[in-house]
Structures are given as structure tokens and as C-alpha cells.
Amino acid sequence: MAHDATLMAADGTLTAADGSLAAAGVQDGGGGWQTVVNDWSSDKQTFRVPWGKAMMWIFLLSDTFIFTCFLTSYMKVRISTPVPWPNPSEVFALEIFGIHMPLILIAIMTFVLITSSGTMALAVNYGYRGDRGRASALMLVTAAFGAVFVGMQAFEWTKLIIDEGVRPWGNPMGAEQFGASFFMITGFHGMHVSAGVIYLVIVAMKVLRGDYERGGGNYEIVEIAGLYWHFVDLVWVFIFAFFYLW
Amino acid sequence: MAQAMTSDAHGQSGAHQQHPLKIYFVIWALLFVFSAASYMTDFLEHGFLRWGLILLFMLLKAGFIVAVFMHMAWERLALIWAILGPPVVLLVLIGLMVIEGDYTLLTRLDFFSEPIAPAGHTAEAH
Q1: ipTM of the assembly?
Q2: Which residues of B touch A72 (CB under 8 A)?
Q3: pLDDT for B63-109, tens place per residue?
Q4: Among residues B34, B38, B82, B67, which one has the least CA distance to residue A121?
């Protein structure tokens, strides 16, 4: 009897020790790869972030594949054409106040998009502080910069189509694939910016109206919208490097 | 990475991404500097220096946007690897397409160029 009791006590202690060990493992698991193993194992929730954020990341991952396919196809046609590729530095040059400036419009567009990324990062921060006024105002500023970007892109496209005669099937400057690559890549990116502007305005209005106060003041939606917006900026970094500068 | 570990230890991950505003302003300024620098590469001659600098500034900008603006530096490793791991296979696609592109170029040069006739012969001799 006494022996049994001891055994049970020992068992009990063992279980308790196991339990606390498992609990500790779930808490931080010692860092590094151990956290990956812990998060992916034992039939439980893998990503300890809000589901909306996890799904936005997975959407952005799929978008990464789409944009990489576009940029890779551009790379492939540029490598394989025996005709000289038009020099983007000259194609996108502008005369401003009589000064010839190579690639200047694209540089300004880049700065506009980076500025919008900065205001978006601030909006996320103020959202989590529960400062609805500042968060929505900064999101609207971000959307305004996005609209400016799309406007400049419309100007760029108009100049290229009307003045320079660039078409998806040919252009006067060189390799025919230039137009197809340009319109497809920048068009798809511009569509992303336009969708982002609409998305940001909708979320900003909902934040301003206090829609998220009902859920206990949860402003992770601002961060999720921010993830999308920063991704659009991220894609532009690669387009700027590979299409305009290369 | 060190910061990711720290936030893990404090059990903050999965909670709100709340960081001092200063870090956003610093990264913002850096992105402006790198953008200006990458624009300046346009004034360089085409060559390995130019291409290297374009790639360097591109990777720095992309890295800072993902790590800080998108808060990836403070997320748990399970999410980091699930998102940043799969794009690595795209490098294989890019590598394959470089080989394929070179092959297509050589094929085109072979088929579309003027036939090189030996001295004393004309193209009609074929």
C-alpha cells in the first residue's frame, strides 16, 4: 500500500514535471529551430499571429511567385533577343526646364512610393496605440501618395504610347519584346497600387468611423493592410532595379 | 535575428507589433539614401560595378522593408521560414531561364545570321 502510494506520488510528480516542461516548450522552447519544431508539431495552430495576417502573408507569397515569373520571362526574352534592347535610361528621360534628365520620372515615382511606405508604417503604429484620428489620416496620406504614383504612371504610359510609339508588339528603339515586358510588368504593378489605394481608403474610413472599437479596439487590420502596401513598394524595388536600371 | 530572439523570450510575438517610432524614421531615411544611390548607378557604365551596386542597393532596400516595415524581424521563425523559404526555389527557375535564354540566343544567331561562306564561294553555291 505504502509502496503504491509512493509510486502514484512519483507518477504524479512525473506528470506535473512533464506538463510544466510542455508548457515551457510552448512558451518559447529555447529559441532557434526548436521554436519551428514546436510550432509545426503536435496538431495545433502553427502561426501564432492573427489569422488575417497569416493569410495576407500567404497571399503575398503567391504574389511573389507571379511577379517573379513576370520578371524572369522579361529576363529570358532580353537575354534571347539578338536585337539591341532599348536603353531605359534614355527611353524614360525627360526634359525638365530645358535640362535633359535620364530616368528622372521613375526616380520621382520611387521616392513617392517610399514616402508612402513610411507614412503607412506610422499608421500601423498609431493604429495599435488606438489613435484612430492619426491612423486613418496617415492611411489616407498613404493612399494619396499611391494615387500620385498611379497618376505619374499614367503620364509615363501616355508618353510612351503616344510620343514614342511603343506597342506590345514593337517599338522604334529596338527589341520588340521591350513593349510587351514593360506593359505587362508595370501594368500589373500599377493594378496592385490602384487596388491598394482603394483598400487603404476603405480601411481608413472604417477606422475613422470607429468600426473596430466594437471588437474591443483591435487594429491589426491596419497592419494587414500595411503588409500589402509595403509589398507593393517591395515589388517596385525589384522592377526599378531590373527593368529601369539594368 | 537577435531581436527576434529577444521578442520570443519576452513572449511578445503573436501580439501587436508595437515598436518605437524612431526605428521607422531611421529605416525611412535609409530607404531614401539607398534609392538615391541606386538612381546614381544609372550614370555608371554598364559593367560589373554597375550591376553589383544595383543588386546591392536592391537587396538592402528589400531587406529593410521586409524586416522592419513588414515586421518580419520580430515574427516567430515558423512564419519567417514558411514565407521566406519557398521563394528560394525561384532562384532555380531564374537559373534555368538564364541557360534557356542563352540557348535561344545562340539558336537565333545560328539561324538568322548571314551564312559565312568560305573564300571563293558565294551563298548561291549552297
Answers
A1: 0.79
A2: 90, 93-94, 97
A3: 999 999 999 989 889 899 999 999 999 999 999 999 999 999 999 88
A4: B67
Residues of chain A with CATH 1.20.120.80: 51-245
Residues of A in contact with B56 (CB under 8 A): none
What are the cell numbers at A144? 494619396
* CA dist., res. A232 & res. A243, Å (int): 16
Q: pLDDT of A192-203, one tens digit each?
A: 999 999 999 999
CA distance A24 to chain B (A): 11
Q: Where are the domains of chain B?
A: 1-75, 81-113
Note whether A83 and A69 are within 8 A (CB). Answer: no
Q: Do B69 and A245 touch (CB under 8 A)?
A: no
Interchain contact, A48 vs B76, CB within 8 Å: yes
What is the spatial distance between Cα A52 and Cα A55, in angstroms, rounded to a whole number? Answer: 5
Q: Cα separation of A4 and B1, whole Å?
A: 50
Chain position carrying cell 497569416: A54
pTM: 0.81
Q: Long-range contacts of range B30-38, CB-CB < 8 Å, 24 or more positions apart?
A: B30/B60, B30/B64, B31/A114, B31/A117, B31/A118, B31/B61, B31/B64, B31/B65, B32/A111, B32/A114, B34/B60, B34/B61, B34/B64, B35/A107, B35/A110, B35/A111, B35/A114, B35/B61, B38/A240, B38/A241, B38/A245
Residues A51-245, CATH architecture: Up-down Bundle (1.20)
User: What distance in Å separates the CA atoms of residue A230 and residue B73, rounded to the nearest whole number?
Assistant: 15
| A39, A82, A227 member nearest B112 (Cβ) | A82
Give bridge partners of residue A94 from the DSSP assignment.
A101
Given a contact cutoff of 8 angstroms between Cβ atoms, the answer to whether A218 and B46 are in contact is no
Which residues on B lie below 8 Å from A237 (Cβ)?
58, 61-62, 65
